[in-house]
């Protein structure tokens, strides 16, 4: 595999997942509590898989097929995500990576299944809004636009006015790598938990890292500047 730093040096733009690579969204406000709150919006009994899931997105996906309740569930999830990011733990090393890429002139677009409101709230609260070029994230109940579908990546690439092959997606899940493959970008898997490295290998990413600070190794020093830019 090519070194992560070399991939970044040769890329025009970075597409960065949010939950995991940037912060642990539900680290301070557990995901199962969020899922419970969302389930409370339904009347009647839910399917067992939905009723027992710890993942709020399982509830959102079910709501998407349940008619008019979808918008209500998505809006409530958005509000809960905004609450959650206020107490979310930053991922070690990511701030340094964002600063390095910003100083070198490589734009970073955050691409997330989380709500755009939550992503923006986090970066504003941590004083890092100026380090990202934009956000391509969930803005409504249309779950068919979320990763592993490539829609959010393609939207970011279009905004960056560059080619998919000149972008690298950095994510911590198989859905990120699958979306990257469908969008035609390079990919770096962030294996932040045991077993992920082995699962990622079947997707053949361009590189796999265990810690975000690995992305800053060998990249240009702060203030070095960059030749050229996004094409």
Automatic annotation (TrEMBL):
Matching InterPro entries: HAD-like_hydrolase_sf, HAD-like_sf, HAD-SF_hydro_IA, HAD_sf
Gene3D superfamilies in alphabetical order: HAD superfamily/HAD-like
UniProt cross-references to CDD domains, sorted A to Z: HAD_like
Keywords for this protein: Hydrolase
Any one GO molecular function term: hydrolase activity
Record carries keyword tRNA processing: no
Domain of life: Bacteria
NCBIfam families: HAD-SF-IA-v1
Protein name: HAD family hydrolase
């Amino acid at each position: 595999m090519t070194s992560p730093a070399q991939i970044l040096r040769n890329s025009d733009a970075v597409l960065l997942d949010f939950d995991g690579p940037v912060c642990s969204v539900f680290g301070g406000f557990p995901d199962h509590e969020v899922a419970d709150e969302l389930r409370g919006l339904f009347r009647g009994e839910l399917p067992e898989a939905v009723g027992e899931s710890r993942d709020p997105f399982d509830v959102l996906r079910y709501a998407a097929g349940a008619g008019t309740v979808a918008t209500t569930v998505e809006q409530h999830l958005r509000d809960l995500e905004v609450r959650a990011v206020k107490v979310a733990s930053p991922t070690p090393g990511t701030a340094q990576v964002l600063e390095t890429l910003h100083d070198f002139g490589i734009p970073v677009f955050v691409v997330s299944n989380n709500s755009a409101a939550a992503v923006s709230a986090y970066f504003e609260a941590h004083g890092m809004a100026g380090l990202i070029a934009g956000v391509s994230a969930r803005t409504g109940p249309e779950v068919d636009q979320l990763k592993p579908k490539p829609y959010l990546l393609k939207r970011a690439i279009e905004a960056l006015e560059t080619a998919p092959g000149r972008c690298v997606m950095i994510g911590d899940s198989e859905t990120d790598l699958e979306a990257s493959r469908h969008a035609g970008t390079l990919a770096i898997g962030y294996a932040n938990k045991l077993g992920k490295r082995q699962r990622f290998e079947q997707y053949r990413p361009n590189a796999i890292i265990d810690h975000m600070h690995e992305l800053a190794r060998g990249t240009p020093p702060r203030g070095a500047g960059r030749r050229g830019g996004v094409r």
